[in-house]
Amino acid sequence: MIVTLPPYLVLDDFARHHGWDGVCAYLDMARRGLDIELELARELLPRPIGQVKQLGSMMVCDVDDDSICKLRVEYEHLRRLGRVRCEWRDGNDVARVMHGRVRGGGGSRRGGGGGDDDGGDGEFRAKNFGAGIWFPDDARIDSTAYARALLNAAANIGRRRGVGGGGEDGEKFDDDDHHDDDDAPAAVTIVENCSPMTSVATIAAGGGFDDDIDCNLINRRHDSTHHAEVRLANGRILQARHVIVATGGMHVDEHLAGLLTPRYSYLVALPHRPITPRFDHGCRYGCDGNDVTGNDDGGKSMMDMRGDSPNFFTLGFSHDWCVESNFVRISGEDHYSGLKRPRSALRCHNLATWGYDKYPYLDANVPYLQRHGVYSETSDYLPLVGTPYSSSRVCYMVGCNAWGQASLSALASSAPALLGYRDFHPDEIDFIRLCSIGRFVGRYVSESARRKDASSRHRRTMDVDSSPSWSLGTVRPEATRSRL
After folding, report:
1. C-alpha span between 146 and 196 (Å, rounded)
2. CATH fold of the domain at 11-144+261-378
């Protein structure tokens, strides 16, 4: 699911931390990330029609007046800012988008009973949601196939650009199994199912750890003798001119300790016979063929021909779900137990119970699929992007916060500028300012605990009285070539 809203309970909370300019910057960044993903997916995926669905999304709220009022405030903020297309929908509209028009049979099938929840007017009424905000441009992508397609495309480009001696960016491998058919190493090599990473660090000239901890992110010193080193659990060492760390959920990095924490997410897939407007005349739930949107367009603006639905998520982001390939797929994040053992059975049971309540015609006696995964979360729910100190060769691009797919996609396109290979485009400056890792790094950062003879050195401490030199508030156009 690709959602273009900040992962906050309400926009007012986000604005308190980052200002309304920050809200606008995030919305613009997420929109750009969505466009990038859709363009790449439609170009690279083997079956883009089935693997890319731009059916929109809807944020919904409970039926009580307080929840509807809060959602209305969100809608007015979005309309005032004018950064995203959105429309207000009442509770009946939400019900039609979720369920179509259903005659009878609206009672829960958990006990095999029937019943009639439709109030006698021949249309199923969702009793759970009072209103919604419709975002017609949002989409979802088969993320597993998308990631694979990106890796394959990178490998193909790397094979075409392979050079003798070493990779274009100075990669060095301990093994001899990274060669193309012509015995020339590729510029890009994919290593899958490798030993876990244990550390990543910047190595200064002479082989020691980098001691330069001046954190000026504008006028950066580019020392060509520095390089990055990745150590794997099996003892293998990978070296490169730069390393981009693009996952944080399964590895606790020393520079990110306290800034980035792992969290569990849970997913269930409840079997669902699609209630498809117009197209599925044998629908056992009584689909009468009318449009789920209330418009005479066959419902194709809301549901596709196979009954796949838009994305839905609650105000406050407690649940997100959709109907996909005859399953109601529901996911939720556990923001409190990510550092403990996963409680998959309990959490997934709770998600399933919630789903049966929202879709009461589903048969709860049928087994459902469940799983859990790990994502990474930051304290202010924004990605961490950039390098932790000036001469670092390790660039971080982490912190999906469960909703950051679009924002991280936009930031990934700025990687060449972050590493100093091109100037920043004008529209990138606000994005990087908002998400720079520098917002958590003072003028000086404490030296790594791994440094030799640390006890005999004069340790520099954070100067809390001086302005942080990483601040991008005074970025000049001519200064934007340096890495942020």
Report:
1. 23
2. D-Amino Acid Oxidase; Chain A, domain 2 (3.30.9)
